[in-house]
TrEMBL record:
It comes from Pseudomonas taeanensis MS-3. This is L-methionine sulfoximine/L-methionine sulfone acetyltransferase. GO terms for molecular function: acyltransferase activity, transferring groups other than amino-acyl groups. It comes from the Bacteria. Keywords: Acyltransferase, Transferase. It holds the Pfam family Acetyltransf_1. SUPFAM superfamilies: Acyl-CoA N-acyltransferases (Nat). PROSITE patterns: GNAT.
């Protein structure tokens, strides 16, 4: 497949919006039942860019968005600043071809280059494809939280996974 992974630009946002809203409508990957509009995704990209966080998109030769991945603040208190939480989405007709792992590999490299220490994934416990994908990338399961969410009339369980980006790194003094 002729595919590139690059930083998202505003021109990618309509494609990102379609993928995001498909996940809202049809999956428990995101625990949100309200569709968003383009302005919402514009604000999200602007906020990620302003904070220096990457938003990566996989595009085909025609420039269509096939998937995207990004990370942001995990918890806003200062002491958590070396940890980020990410998300990864592949367009429904493009799954099972290895795009998710490629996006994640690129995102992990960006996090390592940024000097971050830990990457956290918060995954719906029934999402076996995502849990396997993260295990293959070296993430370990570090938490199981039963019934902390709900969607489509069901309680949802959360599996927390984490990856050490710079094993052995000393914590900063200040
Ligand atoms: C989870 C996700 C990112 C994986 O991306 P991907 O590009 O499909 O990853 P892979 O190609 O490595 O496939 C992962 C697994 O999904 C299977 N799969 C999922 N959907 C598939 C489809 N439509 N067709 C074929 N295989 C599919 C693959 O066979 C593979 O199975 P395996 O783990 O037994 O090998 C993607 O399925 C997705 O976007 N899902 C919806 C959003 C989501 O769950 N995001 C993660 C939130 S934490």
């Amino acid at each position: 497949m002729n595919m590139t992974i690059q930083d998202a630009t505003p021109a990618d946002l309509p494609g990102i919006l379609v993928i995001y809203n498909d996940a809202v409508l049809n999956t428990t990957a995101i625990w949100n039942e309200t569709l968003v509009n383009l302005a919402n995704r514009q604000a999200w990209l602007a906020e990620r860019n302003a904070a220096g966080f990457p938003v990566l998109v996989a595009r085909n030769a025609a420039g269509e968005v096939l998937g995207y991945a990004s990370y942001g603040t995990w918890r806003s208190i200062e002491g958590f600043r070396h940890t980020v939480e990410h998300s990864v989405y592949v367009r429904s007709d493009q799954r099972g071809q290895g795009l998710g792992p490629l996006l994640m590999q690129a995102l992990i490299e960006r996090a390592q280059a940024a000097g971050l220490h830990m990457m956290v994934a918060a995954i719906e416990s029934g999402n076996a494809a995502s849990i396997r994908l993260h295990e293959r990338l070296g993430f370990i399961i570090s938490g199981q939280m039963p019934q902390v969410g709900c969607k489509f009339g069901h309680w949802l369980d959360l599996t927390l996974m984490q990856l050490t980006l710079n094993p052995g790194a000393e914590p900063p003094i200040a």
